[in-house]
Design brief:
Layout (H helix, E strand, L loop, with lengths): L1 E3 L3 H6 L6 H13 L5 E6 L6 H13 L4 E6 L1 E2 L4 H8 L7 H17 L3 E5 L18 E2 L5 H19 L8 E8 L3 H5 L4 H12 L7 E6 L7 E7 L1
Helix pairs in contact: 3-5, 5-6, 6-8
Length: 231
């Protein structure tokens, strides 16, 4: 279901044409008849906030959804929302804010065992260059938005693990163990994840020599282990 938001003000401002109570009733009908419920939500709609989006993710869980999709708002030309953006009455989300807000919602779904089927729009629908005389699509159109979101989720897990780690005084290597195939997601695009790891350590007076990566099939996605290995 295209739930999009469970904030009445957001639904009204976005012209969705349905209420929160109607959304809840539709979800109840689907679940009660034995169908698998999937809830699609959008980030950065008019009058939406990070708090209201986290509430929407929580409500999707509460409605009994087993699957979810998270889409940032892309604003297409010749739509009422585009006119609002041009007039300055609506400001689409910046990429960094959208990634952070998507990661927060992703975490809520992870904690409640809701499978996230997709994060971000199909790139072919938003990332092409505008034709001559054509207005550009506004909002978040990054072709790898999903990867950025997953990287941000991993970043939170890494920060939590590093915060609980006692760094040795002598030189050491930082060993990170993760599920097989997940290293690139932790490293992040252009190594931004690795840079954040070294910056976090430096801020605490620790200077790891390097990161040692270990992959295993015994860990779940987003499950990591970090240790300081003496050189």
């Amino acid at each position: 279901l295209g739930i999009q938001s469970t904030d009445e003000r957001v639904l009204l401002s976005s012209g969705r044409g349905h209420t929160v109570s109607e959304t809840e009733a539709a979800c109840e009908k689907i679940v009660s008849r034995g169908f698998i419920l999937g809830g699609q939500m959008m980030l950065g709609l008019p009058d939406s906030t990070a708090e209201s989006e986290r509430k929407t993710a929580g409500d999707i869980v509460r409605y009994g959804a087993k699957e979810a999709r998270i889409y940032p708002t892309a604003v297409f030309p010749d739509t009422p929302l585009y006119a609002l953006a041009e007039s300055g009455k609506y400001t689409p989300l910046a990429l960094h804010d959208a990634v952070c807000r998507a990661a927060d919602c992703y975490e809520i779904f992870l904690r409640n065992s809701v499978t996230v089927l997709r994060v971000g729009l199909y790139s072919g629908s938003t990332n092409r260059a505008p034709l001559p005389g054509e207005k550009p699509i506004l909002g978040v159109t990054h072709p790898a938005f999903g990867e950025l979101c997953i990287g941000a989720v991993y970043g939170k897990r890494v920060t939590e693990a590093l915060s609980a780690l006692s760094f040795p005084r002598e030189p050491f290597d930082l060993k990170i163990t993760c599920r097989r195939g997940e290293i690139s997601k932790i490293s992040g695009q252009k190594g931004v994840g690795k840079k954040e790891i070294f910056a976090f350590c430096a801020a605490r007076g620790a200077k790891p020599h390097r990161i040692l990566w270990e992959e295993t099939d015994s860990l779940s996605p987003f499950e990591i282990k970090i240790s300081a290995e003496k050189k």
